[in-house]
Each structure stands twice: as C-alpha cells, then as structure tokens.
Amino acid sequence: MLENLSQRLQGILSGLRGKGRLTEEDIDQAMREIRRALLEADVNFKVVKGFVENTKERCMSAEVLESLTPAQNVIKIVLDELTELLGRSDSKLVLGSRVPNVIMLVGLQGSGKTTAAAKLAYRLKEENHTPLLVACDVYRPAAIEQLQTLGDEIGVRVYRGDGKDPVAIAREGVQDAIDNLRDVVIVDTAGRLHVDEDMMDEAANIKRAVKPDQILMVVDAMTGQDVVNAASAFAERVDFDGVIMSKMDGDARGGGALSIKQVTGKPIKFISSGEKPDSLEAFHPDRMAKRILGMGDVVSLIESAAKIQEEEIEAEQAERMLSAQLTLDDFVDMNKQIRKMGGVTKLVSALPGGDKALGSGQVNEDIFDRMVVIINSMTKKERQRPDILNGSRRVRIAKGAGVEVTDVNQLIKKFNETKKMLKQFMPEQDFAPAKKGKKGKKNKRRRSMPALNGMSVADMKKMQDMIKNMEM
Amino acid sequence: MGFFNRISEGLSRSREKFSEQINVLLDRGPDLDEDFWDGLEEALILSDVGALAASDIVEKLRDSAKRKALPDAYSVLDMLYDHIADTFTPADEDVFDLEEAVVLFVGVNGSGKTTTVGKIAFDATQKGRRVLLGSADTFRAAAIEQLEIWAKRAEVEIVTRQRGSDPASVCFETIERAEASGADMVLIDTAGRLHTSEDLMRELEKVVNVVRKRSKADVKTVLVIDATTGQNGLQQARQFNQALDLDGLIVTKLDGTAKGGIALAISHELGLPLYRIGVGEGIEDLRHFDPHEFAQALVGDFAAKPTSPSTSPSNS
Fold this sequence. Notes:
The complex is a heterodimer. Chain A has 3 domains: 3-86, SRP54, nucleotide-binding domain (Four Helix Bundle (Hemerythrin (Met), subunit A), Up-down Bundle), CATH 1.20.120.140; 101-283, Rossmann fold (3-Layer(aba) Sandwich); 298-471, 434 Repressor (Amino-terminal Domain) (Orthogonal Bundle). Chain A contains 22 helices and 8 strands. In chain A, strands 3-2-4-1-5-6-7-8 form an 8-stranded mixed β-sheet, sandwiched between helices. Chain A starts with a helix and ends with a helix. By secondary structure, chain A is α/β, with parallel strands linked by helices. Chain A has helices at 3-17, 24-40, 45-59, 62-65, 70-86, 113-126, 143-154, 166-179, 197-210, 227-238, 255-264, 285-292, 298-312, 315-322, 328-340, 343-349, 354-359, 366-376, 380-384, 391-401, 405-425, 457-471; strands at residues 101-107, 131-136, 157-159, 184-189, 214-220, 242-246, 268-272, 280-282. By secondary structure, chain B is an alpha/beta fold. In chain B, 51% of the residues lie in helices and 14% in strands. Chain B has an 8-stranded mixed β-sheet, sandwiched between helices. In chain B, a hairpin with a 7-residue loop joins strand 7 (274-278) and strand 8 (286-288). Chains A and B meet through helix 2, helix 7 and helix 10 of A and helix 2, helix 6 and helix 9 of B.
C-alpha cells in the first residue's frame, strides 16, 4: 500500500539526511523531486502545487536552514504538511441517535460500492448493530443479486424491493428496517458518472427521500487525476460526509486519497483492502503520513497485535514471554500470530525502515515455515527446554525434519537471538507478573537492534505500549 | 465524418478540459519559452498520460520545434496531435476480426470486463459471427448472473458453472461447446483481480494456459482498463503482460471526464495496441480506436485556430 510513493519520498529525504548543512538549492532540488514523486503517485496537480509551495516556504525559513539538524527539520515539516493534507484528525463513522440510522453509499462505476456496503454491514454487525442492506442499484445487471449473495454470506438482511425505482426502494428499505428492528440502514446505490445529470439527480432524490445520517463516497485507490473532478461533483450534488478508499490492497500510490481531503474538505473514513468482509479499516491520517515517509505504522501494528493477543495468547504464555523465558512452542505460536497479522511482510513493512528491508529482499517468509517443520520434529521436552539439545538430538531432529544439522543449529541460534531480543525489549528483566505498575519512564536505556535501526524515541515508546498491551 | 462525431460524444468533455488547460498556456502568448514547455508537460500529466510519456512527448516536440524552427506555440501544438498518435502502438490485426478466435478478458476489479464482453458479443453477433460466452468469473458474487443478462441482451449462448467452481474447467467446457456448435468467436470473462495478488495471478496464468493448450483457434488476451485509472494502470498492465503475454487493450468509461491518458503510457511502454474504447453503459457504447482521432479528441482542435479557441465541437 502506497509503497512506491513512500519509497520515493524516503529516498529524497534520506538524500537530505546525509548533509550537515542545507542550502536553498538543496531544498529546491528536494522539492522538485517531491513534486515529481507526488505527481507520479496520482496526487492531483493543484494539490501538489500547493503542497510543494507550503512545504518549501516553511523549509526555507532561517530557523530551519541554520539549525543544527536541518534535514531532521525538513522531514518534520514534510510529515507535518503531509498530515495536514490527509486530514488532521481521525474521522470516525459517527452514528446519530436516530433509529434507524441511514448510511448511503455513492460513487463511480466499478469503484467497489457493493463490496464496501457488505463490509460496512459486517463491521457494524461486529459492533453489535443490526444492519440492513438496501439494494438500489437497479441498472447494472445482477447488482442486486450480488448484494443479496454478500448479505447472505455475512448474515445480514437485504431489502430488494421491486428492483425498479431506486428512490422508492430506498424509502421502503428504511421502513423495512423499522418493521424488522434494524438500527442501521446501508443504502447501496448504482455507480454513476459525475457528469450524468439524470443519474446525479437520482442520487440527490434518494438523499432527499431517506435523509441519510452519513453519505460515504467510495473511491478506487487506483484513480488518477480525474478523481478530484468526480469527488467535487459528488460533493456539490449530494454533499457526502466522507470517503471509503477501496482496493487499497493493490500497489496504487493512492494519490487520490491524498487529494480528496484537500480539494473537497471531505475526510477519508475507511480504507478497504481485499475481498473478505473484515477488510475495512478505519483511516488514520497521521499514521498514514508516517507510513508514507517510512517512519512505520507501529501504532496500527500494535493494535492488530493487541487484537490477536486478546483472542489468542493465554496470560501464562504472555508472562513467559515478558520474562523472556521463551520456549520453542511459543516460537511456533509467535509464528502463527505473525501470520494472523498478515505475515512477516506486513509486519516488517509497518516498522520504521521496514519498507527498505523488504525492497532489498532481506525478508523471507519461507524461513518461518522451515522453522516450524524443524520444531515439529522435536520432542515435547526438547521444545520446552531447548538447552538440552545436544549433538545427537540435533542429528535426530535434522533427519526427522529432512534438513541438515546446520539448519537445526541455525534455528537454535535464531531462537536464542529472539530470546535475547525479547530481554532487551522488556522494560525490566525481572518483570513482575503482576498487572499493575506504571512503567512508562523506566525504560530509559535504548539499545538498538539490527532490524530496528533508526527508530526514534517516539517509536520506542510505542513499542513499550505494545508490550503493555501484550501484558493484558 | 460520422465516426468522429460519435467518439466525440464521450470525449468532448475531455477535450474541453484539455483545451482549457492549453488555452491558459496560450494566453501567455505564443513564446516557446521554458514556461511553455513546463506547462505543456503539466497539462499532459493532468491527463494521466504519466510522467514518462509526457516528458517523452514534450522532448520530441521540443526537438522538432528547434529543428524545423517553428515560429510559435500554435504550430507546436499542431504537431502534438501527430506525436500523441505516434506514441500509440499500432495494431497489426483486430482480434475481433480474426476468422476464429478465443479471447480472454482480464483486468483488475471493477474495470468493466463483463460489460465489455457483453458489448463485443452484441457487436459481433450483429456482424453475423457465431459467438459463445464463457463465464470464468466464478468468484465474485453474481458475476455469472451479470454475464447471463448480457448474453440474453446480445442473444448469444453462454457456458456457466456454479459459483466457486474452477475457472479453468469453465474455459475448457466453453471451448468444447464452441467446437461442437461451430461458434467462431469465444469470449471469456475472467474474475477481476489485483495485479499484486500473486495467487490470483497464478490462477489466471493457469486458466490462460489451459485455454492455449486446448483451443485450436487463436487465443488472445485483452486487458480491460478503466479510463479513470491513474499511474497505477501502468503497473497493472506490466504485471498482467508479464503473466499472460497480452495482445492488446480495451479502455472503458471514456464517457466521463477522465481522459484515459494512461492508455497512451501503457500502449507506448508495453507495445500493446488499443482494440476498442468503451463510452457508456449501453450495449452499443463501444467504439473502434483510432490513434489520430483519440489524440485529436484528447487535445482538442483549438490549437490550429487561435482566434476561436475551443468553439467547434469537431474539426472533421
């Protein structure tokens, strides 16, 4: 996601980093490159212009150029402007007190409205709402069947009406929700071109008929320069409240996402990636900005870790990990959890500098599979107490797993390294298994780890938070 | 020319937009200075042609302008038509005119594959071809039903299997049926997939390989691309081309304000011709592609006549 853009920007900024002093020319050069990178990422031309002008002006100030760490300051300014561009604060989906709440989805053809409608319904259902899907796309062949199928799959009722008049279907849908005690109505509308007067009128009519609490525009992450034309027209005609960016699982540089907020003032609320119903995530502009600049998205990582931890890890095991008394069984479990979080690749890419490591091919997902195979060839006792693994045991394990003894040795080495790393991570080695005690300040010492070079203090803090989360 | 008027319906808006862009440049006067060239490049970038193609075109123009000692901006813009048209890769053959062919339609989700298959089926049937459709999108909810409706509209036969079944087996069956029934044009709709999904790309590779092995007729793969797509379209095309060795492109949704400039970049970089363009949701909203007309429609006809900028809807 947004990889190419972040690569480009990181490259440009790391070029600055190497310099002790920055001249106006350096800044000029960097800004030209940033401009080009943003344009290639499909950020709207006018937005790019404004962005570069603002950033440049701020960077050219005497305080920045004459400071001791000018490059750091420039990066901070770029991050700041980028966050500004994406929206300052998170924009959550706020449901009103009205029952049923009505959410209407609009967008161009093929942007992913129907899929997004189902995902939204699934998300609301997870949050203990009882959504109803209303199928107002009466034009595209089989669009109603598509919504029905998706609704059936996630166990959400779908109102289809007569399949002819979208305005009537929407209105009846709301009534259907009242009759069937549904508290949120999601109205899926037909894809329409923003220049199609009749269709835009229809969207406005549906809006008038059901008075939605929220109107969300679904925008394809791969859209180019034209996205602002479409978004502006939709903003004018139906005045939507926020954006769902779809197809974020591709490698689009997502410049549209960066542009819409700036051009229409409408925030991005969700990003949707993949075809599974649970792949709708809340959008966090600050985290996205950091990620684009290669500062990692540790917070999101922690959150997904915490979510899985809650489900999976038993308190006892967590404690063992905290006290760094890792067993090989835990090692296997960790591998499983990493997979749940989207695999090593996703994990590493969320870490500062991770994108670079991935790009240079330093991360190999298969390695973990091989490790599991070796561990599975061990006895229970060996897994619990790896220190008893002597030469002959290792030979036996290697035979069982169909690998060389050196592979087994390597695994043990890696395991010990992980154990050591965990120890370093822990705020205190003799961590009390009790659940209380403030620890924020304790971890003053910073040891750099091979994979985590260049972590800032702030990121380190977040790591601590992650550990805090694991404790629970 | 009748054809140009029809294509203009969809493209006129793009043209106006582009014309506006260039006219702003022209207001600065016809000096061929740095600002002009920079501005021209920007205008091209705004049309989604991509930085590479844009600078390539501007570079070429700049070169010619110097060599031919062109007097002003207007004469340079005149040449822009030709340069854009030249940047497209010409088609050696029209896959939809082959005597016998199996054509697979591939692309990312929501690009308009199913709709395009429907339109082509209709067009070919009108021309007296015997068309058979194969619904190999066994993944997306209601994709089969969607193609069935198009088959009914175009009055052609269709081969389907249950949702979730193996797309390669659908193709196999489709070809068998085509051979049995004597259909001379087989159109296969595949499931939309992001080019970044390795598994799905491998699946598609397998599907195409099965078809290539089984079919006696020529097998062609066509990438369907949404005109609103930005620079990512190039990456999409590269990946699909690498996996499937594409034969050509179809650009859809040109009836909006999107200029479809990415098609130029794709055609240019990958050497792929454009076979058709989609300009609406109706069954007849499919046009032949002509690079010159596309270029004219994209740039507009204002440049040659500075006295009446962007007034006439067509210069033919």
